[in-house]
Amino acid sequence: MSAAGWAVADSWTMTRRELAHWARQPVQAVVGLVFPVMLLLMFNYLVGGGRGVEGVPAEYLVPGMLALTMAFGLESTMLAVAQDLDKGVVDRFRSMPMASGAVLVGRSVTDMLQSVAALAVMGAVGYAMGWRWHDGAAAALGAVGLLLLLRFAMLWLGILLALVAGRPEMVQAVQILVWPVGFVSNVFAAPESMPGWLGAVVEWNPMSATATAVRGLFGNPGGGGDSWAAAHAGLLAVLWPLALLAVFFPLAVRRFARLSH
């Protein structure tokens, strides 16, 4: 087998290892799916998400929550990588004749599969709450593509932070940083309902760009605005993740390579 073939085979082995964790620890996987659903139900029925937007609140809230779910999945990625480092699992893999990047590839593939499952569950719950998409299957698939692009970019940020932290207890401290980025966005309320300076910050948040673009593709309210960031949300929803990938992907790969020496 060629070097590329061995790399693919090793990566698939690492992917199957991560998938086996789902079967052996189903509670952790279920909690990862249930937590964003609880947030969606709470903000829709108790807190009152969608403030400042006309129409069905769920049609504004659900696309935003889909974007937020892509960021919150970052925590499970960080914890899994840090646990492997702390327990010496990475050192054991490093001593084996395998492709050096197979561990990261296996983790990223499993993470993306989990993200697809999370989107499916959230979409089903949102549909039961009254959320609908109105612009056809092609636009809906485009929206899903933007959500997964954001998730893929956040994934490599999480891998880098976990490699830097090194220990699960340090990861738990870093996880706190995810919440301000998620909530200082237009996920739950329109920027027009906020103070001027805060609304401007919210509109340039990468998560706000994805949420706005996804709403537009789904045909939901809140899919545009008067500001440049809101009017070009689709462009920013692509540029922001690509910029994050351009920065954090090589840094994560380089950091992992240093652990191998």
Describe this structure in words.
By secondary structure, the protein is mainly alpha-helical. Helix content is about 75%, strand content about 0%. It has helices spanning about 5-25, 25-45, 55-70, 75-85, 90-95, 100-130, 135-165, 170-175, 180-185, 195-205, 205-220, 230, 235-260. Helix 1 (about 5-25) crosses helix 6. The longest helix is centred in the middle third of the chain and has 30 residues, at about 135-165. The chain is elongated, with a radius of gyration of 19 Å. The model has no long low-confidence stretch (mean pLDDT about 85).
Mean pLDDT: 83
The first-to-last residue Cα distance is 26 Å
Task: Please tally the helical runs, counting DSSP H or I stretches of 4 or more residues.
Answer: 13
**Overall body shape:** elongated
Q: How helical, in percent, are the residues?
A: over 70%
Low-confidence segments, ≥5 residues, pLDDT <50? none
- How much of the sequence is in beta strands? under 5%
Class derived from helix and strand content = mainly alpha
In total, the number of strands is: 0
Radius of gyration, taken over Cα atoms and rounded to an integer in Å: 19 Å
The secondary-structure element order is HHHHHHHHHHHHH
* Largest sheet descriptor: none
